[in-house]
Amino acid sequence: MALFAKMDKPRQFHYSPRFYDERKERLEKIKAQAEAELAAEKKKASNSGLQRGFLAERRTNSKLRHSKFEKKSALRFLIILFAILGILYMICPELFMAFWGR
């Protein structure tokens, strides 16, 4: 007859903090509201179209990117040029001797 046996309820967990700082809780609530408002403003501003200075920033970033690319391509060109000249020198050195007058 275990069906009608009385079952004990599980023990409840009660947590009561030792210290409660009402001022700190209010400050955290105000900070959370301010952060939410800032996030909403940023989202609204980013969706509003072009921002002031946006095009100038893109132009400087583009110039930096292109200057880095130009430096790399110039270095690559010099390496390829010297490699071709070296191969040509190995194939027919008399061409180079005639050019430098030896």
Can you walk through the features of this model?
The chain is mostly helical and 102 residues long. The mean pLDDT is 79. The chain is 70% helix and 0% strand.
Which terms summarize this structure?
single chain, 102 residues, mainly alpha, 70% helix
The coarse silhouette is elongated
Poorly predicted spans? none
Structural class determined from secondary elements: mainly alpha
Instruction: State the distance separating the first and last CA atoms.
Output: 119 Å
Topology order in helix (H) and strand (E) letters: HHH
Main β sheet profile: none
The pLDDT mean sits at 79
**Mind telling me the C-alpha Rg?**
38 Å
* Number of β-strand runs: 0
Fraction of helical residues = 55-70%
Classify the beta-strand content into a percent band: under 5%
Summary, kept brief:
This protein has 102 residues and is mainly α.
Give the SSE map.
Elements: H1 22-46, H2 54-91, H3 93-100
Helix pairs in contact: 2-3
